[in-house]
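USER:
Make up one protein:

ASSISTANT:
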Amino acid sequence: GINAEYGGACTSSWLLRHDGTCWHANEPMSTLSIVPSEGDIIGVTFDHVQLQFYVNGKLADGCVASNLHTLVYPCFYVDDGAIIDVNFEKFYYEPPQGYSCIMKEQDML
């Protein structure tokens, strides 16, 4: 989890690394079909079941986390003086059909 040097080390986290590999449970799961590079925009969709990654508005097949019937907490990390800009609304690329900005979880009971 959060206290590990990197994410993706436990069964409750998924990590997309700079080389396009996706890690889960301390193992590389797969590699994205589109490897991001400096200046690219990485998008993430989550529909309460499936987590997917996008690079510059295009689905980057290869790293899909499925059957996630749980709360999800996004976390971002960079090192070596890298800069990251995070945006949760007013996207550069239009989100896929049926998706919008992050919505706060609400208990309806």
